[in-house]
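Lab notebook, bench 4. Still working through the backlog of constructs that have no structural model yet. Next entry is a single chain of 324 residues. Request: give me the structure tokens for it.
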Amino acid sequence: MVQSEPPWNWTGVDVLNFKDEDARLRELVAVFPSKRSSDDEIAAYLVDLGAHFRRWLHQDEFGPDRRRRTATIRALMKSIQRLEKHLTGSSSLTKARLDAELRYQNNSSNLVMQALYEAAVDVAGDQRCVGAFDRDTVWASRLRDYAYTLLAQSQSIDSNTESEIFPVAQRLRFDALQATGPSFGLADVKRWLHGYWNAVAETLEELSTRRGAEERVSLKLLVEQLCELWERETGCSVTAHDRVKDQSTGRAETPAGRFITKAVEAVLPDQSWFKERDQFAQSARARSFYLDNQAGEKARARHILVIMKDFVHRRRQRDELHKK
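Model written out:
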């Protein structure tokens, strides 16, 4: 198996692109048996929803998959472990100099790794100037390099992996953005690194224990909002089944289902959008969105049906609870 590379600096933030898709979307508006809003209002809503859907796709289905997020976590763990181990391996005098430098230069706006890197740079320079033993000079130089690596990595984590780490860190009460201060020394750095290790190690454990395919989050959000649009405009409850003359078609065959299936196809991005993200299209959930893939269209129709059935089931449960 090819080793996955961490997608450093990837971000799920994407510009909302409100393309003029009135022609296709106005055809969809005509599908409604009745409407509470004007055609222009519904078309504008669909354009807005389509723009947000493309952003969701970019972040989720075409963002770093589980293997790449895991690769990022492993890279962070390796750098943290190397730095923790290195901090135990020098003379007491050199570590005392590092502690003094941390306390001397820190201010409330410094983050922990920035403070450690800057202190390591100064200690390495001082060691060369005073002609310290080669062992201590090499140690200080390596500390500078290891601190820089972890600093750069921690500032370059892709936003999807960051969203995996954040809730774990909160649960463990670890602050990755902890600021230092005048009394912040080497012992505090070690405690912070230990907390960082615990947060990323537990995140890795959670990622590793997940089973099965990742959910098509974007499609679910889109379909559920289209279901709500149908009910809001028509005043009719969404229904979902795939039967035509007692035969299963594998797609939603109700009025709401036909509208929603067409709407999903209408708001999909064009081929140029997919080409820009080819490197992230390795998973089945990503490939199923390609427009030139008939199997993908059938797969989307099946998933739309499943999502709609779940929507109907959950609404029925809510209605039953309200009756009690």
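Notes after review: The longest strand covers residues 243-244. The CA atoms of residues 49 and 225 lie 8 Å apart. Flag for follow-up if needed.
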